[in-house]
Please model this.
Amino acid sequence: MSVYFWLILTLACLVWYTAVTIIVAVRGVADIREMMARLGARDSDSVE
Amino acid sequence: MNTVFESNFSWWLDGSIVGLYLIGVIFAGLWMRRFVSKVDDFLVAGREMKLYLGIASLAATEFGIVTCMYTAQNGYLYGFAGATPGILMALAMLVVGLTGFCIKPLRDAGVVTLPELFQQQFGPRIRCAAGVVIVMGGLLTTGVFLRLGGEFLVGAAGLAEGRLEITMTFLLLIVLVYTILGGMLSVLVTDFIQFVVMSVGLLLVTVLILIRIGWSELVQTVQAHHGSGGFNPFVHEGLGWSYVIFFSLIALSGVLTWQPIVQRVLSAKDTSTGRRVYSATSFFFVCRFVIPGIWGIAALALLPELNGNDTIHAMPKFLAVFVPIGVIGILIAAMLAADMSTNSSYILSWTSVIYNDIIAPFRKGRSSESQGILWNRLIVAVIGLFMLFFGLWYEFKTDIVDYLGIASTVYLSSMSTLLIAACYWPRANDWGAAGALGVGVVIPVTYLILEQTPETSEWVIRNIGPRYSGIATYALAALAMVIGSLMKPSVRVPVAPITLDDAGAR
Model:
């Protein structure tokens, strides 16, 4: 029974990690762009 | 580690892969320098970190080469049951994320570090003392990362003996360059790249193991070497209830107070984002133990003869000959990614505390933003040098897990007590905080000294052991907080006597 627990957990890790890597890779790029845009806009406002 | 391992590493193919990765990271790190104009940008990314970037950064920070090595060692020594600390950490992070326990008031307070929050309840002296304890525990822990990272890379890439110092210096220089120039902004972006590279490497190698060695072989290996204890931590003679309780305490206190983790909450756009980062990242900590644990079990299947402190090198030794040419380049890049993200984040965490909580009381008047950034850059450089010389000089008398356990208990036991009290017990005060800080340092350090002293070593290991010592530290630190706080007389504000005029009015 415990062998099945570890098998399920291992498979869950592989599936979850793969999915999260793909999702975070795509959406993380958007987060970085937004962060840079906000920082850039903030710096422009302070110069003005 | 004096042995030169054979390795499938090819300088032409694998070296090119690693070189491309390093150039990409350096470029990205330096690019972010242009956005650093305030101390808050340098230390907490201007609080502009959003959810997915936060997840990548937290995952990358908390998965370094040292983590990979000791979690794989756990798989080698305890089978699947060795992944128990990861499960406990995931549960702790999930519960804290969902409930907001401590992290909600922490983020709402808008502070940069934990000691800054402690000042609000316990005063400036406790803030400074807490800062010193955090930096002590932090530097003792981080001080060995560079050394172990260098040992892994020398082993996995099959470098000649004597290349360790050059490898360590090279790794450190790259990390320092972008951390000094771009601070947390550079760390976040490079963490993101490192998360992607690291994840690809981890998944690739794990799939290779499952295909070429196979699940049945792994299970049989664990059964043969560890019996049913290899699947159940409560049954394994080397683990048991004390192990589960001790690591539950470490997991909860680490999630609440380990500065590199908490810094993600403090850098989040708002409290809600911080909590979601915790909840969404929690299962990662299961992966953090299970995946390298599989590598450790695979190493046990192919290299069963290792014992004692040599088991920490089982994983790199195994990978060097198991992973084929081309893929090993991706793996080395992945491990470099893991190591660099951890080192940069940890260096920045301790810098925050030194600048914000130890130096701050001695700064006369407010520094300008540019002076503040310069101070932080200097501190980053000094910490980097400390890591290099400590890593080269320090000789381990115990194994890595025991060493890290003691170093982290000095920090975690008192910090978690102070944080919980500061957030939820108005009666807590500086007497209790001082008591908790004192107990949190004295007990584990005393245990370490007794363990190292020949006359007392055998007795203390047999009758107490590091886990009961650790559990006692947590319990007594909490007790010291309660007793100390209750002992201090509460300050009563004198109430002016009410006087009535002849008409009976006030």
